[in-house]
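Hey, resending since the last one bounced:
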Amino acid sequence: MTDEARLAFVASSARLVLLSNSELLDNSLHQYLLGCPQLRLTRSNTLRAGLNDADLTLVDVGSFADADCLRQLRQLRDTPTALVNVQAEQARRLLELHPWVKGVFYPNTSRNNFSRGISIILDGGDWLPRALMEKLLGRYRQLTHASRAIDELSVREKQILALAGKGLSNSEIAERLHLSTHTIKSHIHNALGKLGASNRAQGASLVMGHVNEAGI
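The structure tokens again:
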């Protein structure tokens, strides 16, 4: 079955919206979708009323500033969304913030892979490049391990790492908690071992996402 036939089978009629400032990208994607008259692609440079009911919204990441891209993705949370014209590292960061995004298409994506990915997304699946998926899976495993490890930290260890995450030095933490600097170093060493973190900055960032000083 050809990609065009697969798309016809999956979606008898589907509306795609491309959020982009690029007329060139719009023309390219229309060329990619030739032979699929059941797919209607509309381009807009902003998310207007009536566009959020699309079957799939394609966000041209390379066409917007970071803040604008993040704002649009927040607004699209309840709409099937894919990223297009996006670099690998950009895609990783955006998916960590918005894991509900259904697909990612790099600038060099071939016509066959684009049409295949669109068909899979319209059929309810996800389309992510293999290397990106492996990185996200690794990140998920790291966070899962950290979440479990944080439960094993003592209240004092959490408190000290939380203060370290606020930028306090060992001596400043020691003064605030009325402990010796040696004790602070010992607590940090033990906490990093439990978390599997390589330095205090990494350990603090993990803890800061789960606890706050007032709640310890």
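The CA atoms of residues 85 and 107 lie 4 Å apart.

Sorry for the duplicate.
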